[in-house]
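Tokens as discussed.
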């Protein structure tokens, strides 16, 4: 992904029914589909963390794609802006 003036990066922590429901699978699938980059991982407290980079529309589309998962229920998202990582490629699932 080439960065441009409209590229942003966000750290998002998702709370709700977000583990053992395919959340990371849907996140990676949607990020690949919409051209966003970054990573996603389960946290020990039952939440899921994500760093995602793209346009605001791409990020919104990825979150919408995740929410289409059958058993996924996002109750709350804590979002923080981050510095863009130039020339980042791909979206991965991370493990502790």
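Sequence:
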């Amino acid at each position: 992904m080439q960065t441009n003036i409209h590229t942003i990066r966000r750290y998002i922590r998702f709370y709700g029914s977000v583990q053992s429901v395919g959340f990371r699978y849907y996140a990676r699938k949607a990020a690949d589909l919409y051209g966003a980059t970054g990573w996603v991982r389960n946290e020990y407290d039952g939440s899921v963390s994500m760093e995602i980079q793209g346009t605001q529309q791409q990020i919104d589309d990825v979150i919408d794609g995740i929410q289409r998962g059958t058993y996924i229920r996002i109750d709350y998202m804590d979002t923080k802006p981050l510095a863009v990582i130039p020339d980042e490629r791909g979206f991965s699932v991370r493990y502790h």
